Amino acid sequence: MQVRPADPAEIDQLAQLWHDAWHHAHAHLAPPELVRLRTVASFRDRLALMLADVCVVGPAGAPLGLCALKGDELYQLFVSPKAHGTGVAAALIADAEERLAARGVQLAWLACAIGNTRAERFYEKSGWRKAGTFVMMSETSNGPFPVDQSRFEKRLAPMA
Predict the structure, then answer these.
(1) 8 A C-beta contact, residue 69 and residue 52
(2) 13-47: pLDDT as tens digits
(3) Total-model pTM
(4) Terminal C-alpha separation, the chain
(5) CA distance 92 to 103
(6) What residue spans define the domains of the chain?
(7) Please, which residues have CB within 8 angstroms of residue 146's CB and are 6 or more apart in sequence?
(8) In b/e form, how buried is each residue of 70-92, taking b as 16+ CB within 10 angstroms?
């Protein structure tokens, strides 16, 4: 399965994908105030700022999943519900780990919404371990919003 850099021309499709996947996985877990702030436009605005660090799986203009990095963090990983179980997430996480290792990151981390058991099982299956919980200040159009998260970590092999 091919992972490729995001194409700026598909930002609207990526924003819709992220919106739909986020709501599918988080709307029942997140406070209603946060759910209201998670609009397609809010995802598009966030994507525009980080597009250089976003990779995707799927045909140009019809992405099935996306993954973004931020420093030593696997910052976002979302897959269209229609692509669950197809290997898209596994391809994205493997690519993210390679990109992080290439940056010299030895201990990568990611945040996972508490209660998102599907994602937690996937991360554990992928070799990540739960290191604890914390409150993350999530980005919103109204400023930072506190969200309880689980922190997962993984030691990465140095690039040869």
Answers:
(1) no
(2) 999 999 999 999 999 999 999 999 999 999 999 99
(3) 0.94
(4) 23
(5) 17
(6) 3-155
(7) 135, 136, 137, 138
(8) eebbbbbbbbbeebeeeebbbbb
Nearest by Cα to 11 from 39, 36, 37, 46: 46
Length of the chain: 160
Residue 120 near residue 130 (C-beta atoms within 8 A): yes
- DSSP codes, 118-134: HHHHHHHHTT-EEEEEE
Residue type for position 138? S
Question: What would the two tokens of residue 118 be?
Answer: 């599907």
Instruction: Summarize pLDDT for 36-89 with one digit per residue, the tens.
Output: 999 999 999 999 999 999 999 999 999 999 999 999 999 999 999 999 999 999
Distance between CA 141 and CA 73 in Å, rounded? 22
Task: State the architecture of 3-155 in CATH terms.
Answer: 3-Layer(aba) Sandwich (3.40)
What is the rounded CA–CA span in Å between residue 54 and residue 60? 14
